[in-house]
Amino acid sequence: MTAAAAPTPAPALSVHRLVRRYGGNAAVDGVDLEAESHRITALIGPNGAGKTTLFHCVAGIEPADAGRVALAGADVSRLAPHRRVRAGLAWTFQRIEVFPTMTVADNLRVGADRRRRPGPALADLLERLGLDRVGDRQVARLPAGTLRLVELGRALATAPRVLLLDEPASGLDDAQTGALARLLPRLAADGMAIVLVEHDMKLVTRIADRVYAMDRGRVVGRGTVDEVRDDPAVRALFPDGSLDRPNS
Amino acid sequence: MIALELAFAGLAVGCVAALCALGLIVTYRVTGVFNFGFGAIGMLCAYLLRQSVEVWRVPVAAAAVVVLAVVAPGIGLVLDRFVFRPLRRRSADPAENLVATLGVFVLLVGIVVLLWGIQGRSAPPSILPSGSVRLGGGVVVADQSAGEVAVVVVLAVALSLLLRATRLGLYARAVVDRRDLAELVGIRSDRLAAASWAVGGLLAGLAGVLIAPSLELDPYGLSLVMLETMGVAVAARFASLTTALVAALALGIGQSELSLLHPGGDAQSVLSAAEANLFVILLLAALLIVPRLDGGARADAGGTDAGAMRRFATRGSFPAPAAWWLPFPVLLALPLALDPVDLEAAQAVPALAVIFVSIVVVTGYSGQVSLGQAGYAGLGALLFGRLAAHTLPGAPAMPALVALPVAALLVGVVGVLTGWPIIHRRGLYLALITFAVAVCSSRFVFEQPLFTSGLSIGRPAPFISDRTFYLLELGCLAVALCAVRALHGATGERGRVGRALVAIRDSEPAAQAAGIDTARLKLAVFAAGAALAGLGGALLSMSTLAFDSSSFDPVQGLVWFAAVVVCGADSAAGAVLGAGAVVALDTAVANGSSTVAVGIGAILLGWLPGGLALAVRRVGGELRTAAAQGTIPEVPPVSIEAVRLTPLGEQVASRVALRRRAITRRATESGSGEHA
Fold first, then answer.
1. Do residues B317 and A138 lie in contact, with contact meaning Cβ atoms separated by under 8 Å?
2. How far apart are CA A50 and CA A56, in angstroms?
């Protein structure tokens, strides 16, 4: 509620001091994060850094032990996941979750069924994701890469203002990854705030406007791609050099 | 002194419960399968023992050895080899295993009903000596109790040692955690599983043989008494043998000691109901309190099998032809032309069909495994009877025709109240708890004179005669089917609500991510299912003009559930056909034959998860494809000459051969007979 007093408009998504504990361990330990409209924000870090847990808490799938989640300044911390969807949040899962007995089009239709904002037409969405050819196919028989796109399509069908993508490129082939790398900036250009967790550093460095690096439940570095590349604390997380500039 | 003697008497009951729990836990810990069939295995063994001793005149000791050392473990081995090993080999999900064990249960109950009838029989002889021991202080203990305690303690210690201290136990734990990895290091998981099924069978048989002498033999009653002891295994979270043993013995003693209290009046009837059903109370309480069933060891058991029922989905694979439903009204109207006796039997069909459709809605569409529909059906019958007779306290007088929908609505309200605390549970957990609710309704409502004495069921005014009443039933079925059809939308493409339900069944996290209020929708469907079941139950009682608590027995509910899944869990048409088939088989062949058929079907579901509905859709789809290509698929010839047949088999075979010859002749005459 205090954020509303600020002169600049509130960011599309703001996470304030979020904590999530499992027993004695804090998987997410006081994380602050902001994601703005028209921007792609990437969340990087080693396995076990707490990225997926953070996503789950933001989506409301897991309860946060402390902290606050706000969409455009409105506190949604106490809302159930489906209410957060109505408030403009959408997400995809690291482990693919689709409706296998339905067709691709019906998978997207479920997302569109409950939206209260104007959203993309189903046919446009299918075409945009390159799914128009498999629209009437049953999902259970499609390859994993296509399922990622089906999930993304379902999320987009809810007409979100903030989109959380958990490793959207895993399981995609090079062509599909390329298509994703072209699609996400276009969605951001339309005004969406996109937050993605991704291990494909090439994709991150290519499309991210802002990067948060996490380690052991805390944010250890933030800034533009170039800024975090030069941050020794962040570089230490990527000893394989995957964060280095391609020409260096 | 009496208290002490009672304690020993209670120990005997506790021992049987402990045996059941040990068997359940051993099988579950090694194979990950919750064996619903154990109650029926015990019941079958008790029947076999009685048959051997009292009909075949075999000495008790010899009969006991054969039944307990050969038959009981043998059943376990056969089940493992032919039912659960194939399921294990293709990593079937928990819902498939659950339905298969239900199939085992239903099949064994059906066999017993077929062979020995549904009515009760005298109890088998006890396998333990019948004398008594005099302890110090004048306490007299029956040899039987002492023997049972000894048997159980020895078995429990042996099993504990086996699972904890030996290499076998270590292997078992490894197999439960990761079967594939365990096999990589050379553990023979199939042998372990077979051994655990044999032990489970033996313990179930032993429990059945031990408990039967104190009860009347009756296929539903005895298997239900054994199922009621599941609460002990639940309280032990399917993990700790010690907890199970202590809980079972304590409960047995507690049950026995309760008989010392004599509060008198209404409190007395409540107390005696509680005393007789202490294990049911424990089952419900344990399920409500225990947060997870698996002691944290198995991820797939209690919690994360959301959407497992989607394995039984039939829709989506093959499109249905236009006007496929046309034969149904004709078939359903046929009984109107039957003579009065057959029409009377046929009256059960639409009533049962409404109950089956309620299972389709709850389980087939939204994926919630509800084994408790018999309870809601019985409640519907009871409430209708009371409302129509103006004997429900606080309810205004109303005509019977109004009482019918009001009763269904009230059952819907009960559905909301009972569904509310359990709506976040799923899979095995939901299955057990809905079953427990049905058992509670049966024990504490349907069997209590307080609620059922003086209850007369009549038919509403213009629908008194059999023929007109059948029309009323058809009307109710039509309403139920229209409600279901509305879920799919008018064009055959699922409507918004139908799509959301299937989304929940397929993946609950994804449904939430799509903005669906999963908890509220599941509860709504659960309540709607309860109301439909209530409507069906009221019709069922009206068809016989009586409230019969055995029609709404929880075991009956298990048979109904299995029947629906066999016919195609999410197929309303399959449910209607299934109801017709169940009634027709029981009327035309023999009581229990439908139960056997359902049991076999449920076991075979491992090979055809979509059930009969999917089979029909598939055959129909392939025929249409073939017709489109202008060829008729060749049916492989069946050779029955190689098999030696019984006289009945010979008769059937000759008829089949005749018909085949006729078909072949017709095919030759029409000029396409190259394959003749």
1. yes
2. 10
Max CA separation in chain A (angstroms)? 51
And the tokens for A222? Answer: 């933030």
- Select the residue from B487, B488, B512, B518 to test the A interface by mutation, using most A Cβ atoms within 10 A: B512
- Model ipTM over 0.90: yes
A 10 A CB-CB count for B120 gives 15
CA separation for the pair B656, B651 (Å, rounded): 9
DSSP, residue by residue, B290-341: -S-SSTTS-TTTTTS-TTGGGGG--TTSSPPPTTTTTHHHHHHHGGGGS-HH
Q: Report the amino acid identity of residue B669.
A: E
Residue A113's closest chain B neighbor by CA?
A: B496
Three-class SS state of A76: coil
**Residue B238 class from Cβ within 10 Å (0-12 exposed, 13-18 middle, 19+ buried)?**
buried
**Is A82 close to B515, i.e. CB distance below 8 A?**
yes
Report B:495-514 residues touching A (Cβ under 8 A).
496, 499-500, 502-503, 505-507, 509-514
- Pairing state of beta strands A66-71 and A13-22? antiparallel
pLDDT digits (tens, 9 = 90+) for B64-118: 999 999 999 999 999 999 999 988 887 777 888 888 999 999 999 999 999 998 8
Taking contacts as CB-CB distances below 8 angstroms, the residues of chain A near B515 are 82, 85-86, 111, 113-115, 158
Assess contact for B385 and B548: CB atoms under 8 A.
no
Q: How far is CA B471 from the centre of its chain?
A: 30
